[in-house]
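Researcher: Let's run the pair from yesterday's discussion. Sequence first, then tokens, for each.
Model: Starting with the first of the pair.
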Amino acid sequence: MIDLLSSRHRSRHSVAAPVTETILVVDDQADMRNVICSFLRAAGYRVLKANGPEQAVRIARETEIIHLLITDIEMPGGRGDDLAQWLQIGRPDMQVLFMSGNPMQRRRLEGSHFIDKPFPSLNLLLDTVRGLLTQGRNVQAPIFAAA
């Protein structure tokens, strides 16, 4: 198990200013979801977690601002891309990062932000999150076109 709170880890990935972004992590695999959430919290982010699309929708209805959705694609109860599309209706500035262990999903969602599970490193996840949140501050472009 990775020691997410070691002093070496904190100093290497500390942020200069307090992080104010809210991230919603959706994954039906509890271990994966908990590692991601712990890692992002240690990096200073406000993190909300859901075990699937239904719980994510409930959380989103109670949360005014979500800056980034990190979602698995294949989950019982729905697909992550359907969830992202629904959430972006009311949050067009929200960034989305899809994740999956199924390489076919990467091809299906070509052009979207995507990270393979298992992650080659948690540092890659953090770098990707930081990049998307920076992009979200500078360019407001939803990943799905309006129908």
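Model: Moving on to the second of the pair.
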Amino acid sequence: MTKNNQIKKQDLVVTRIIDAQVELVWKAWTDPEYVMRWWGPQYYTSPTCKIDLREGGKYVFCMRAPKDQGGQDMYTAGVYKKIVPMERLEFTQGMADNLHSVPFHFLITNYSSSLIYSKYSHQIPPISKFSSDFYPVL
């Protein structure tokens, strides 16, 4: 705790190197047909994806829970901040029904791709829960 009993916020940086061609990783994040193939945790589907791929453009990704988990649709939305094709895709991201937006940075470099999450100021779930639900996504 800091003065005035406020919790100090810290950045969380997660990096994962992806062994894939840059063009394919770029499409996985910028082409709605590709996004819908992988968006969401294991056993979820992604029935819709809208992308306005330009700086200042918005996107909305939908993921649908399996029927045994309620089958509800959940939305993630954000705004593209910086786009350098095949090199850098920087965007905000947050739940569409929540006004808080969490900045994420996605970087693609020559045949090596890394996904960097930063400035995440919420409580982080236990790593075992995070890993089991979202490892296939990361």
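Researcher: Give me one sentence on the second I can quote.
Model: The chain has one domain: 23-121.
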